[in-house]
Amino acid sequence: MRSNYLLQESKMKQQNVMDEIRRNYRNNCWIDFEIYLYSNGRLIIVGSSDLSYFHNLEIIINAPSYMSGDTHWTCDPLDDFMKLKIINDDDNDADIILEFYSESIL
To answer: Alpha-carbon distance 77 to 100, whole Å?
Structure first.
């Protein structure tokens, strides 16, 4: 089963997406993430407990304005590995910063 998450809804839905990812993966020892595709202004980040075979998580971000970091990383689901920050919140026109935290070196 693959879960798709589109981070361009209301602030409440964005936080629900983050909570659902944490809840679904809390029993795993790790989650591998990688940038799967960036095309036509759409960024797709995939995740799985083993990306060499499959991915069952997609985070879709439309029109990202800036990216920095590794293209493949591992996170511990028990840590606070993902944070969502909302800035410039002007009546549904918010800028979103999605940060991933990892101590692994791949």
So the answer is: 11
Q: Cα separation of 40 and 72, whole Å?
A: 21
Q: What is the pTM for the complete model shown?
A: 0.74
- Return the residue matching tokens 């407990």: 49
Per-residue pLDDT tens digits for 13-64? 666 777 777 788 778 888 899 999 999 988 999 988 888 888 888 888 888 8
CA atoms of 53 and 23, how far apart (whole Å): 22
User: Residue 9: its pLDDT value, please?
Assistant: 47
Give the number of other CB atoms < 10 A from CB of residue 77: 18
CB atoms near residue 57 (< 10 Å) = 20
Provide the residue ranges of all domains of the chain, joining segments of one domain with +: 1-100
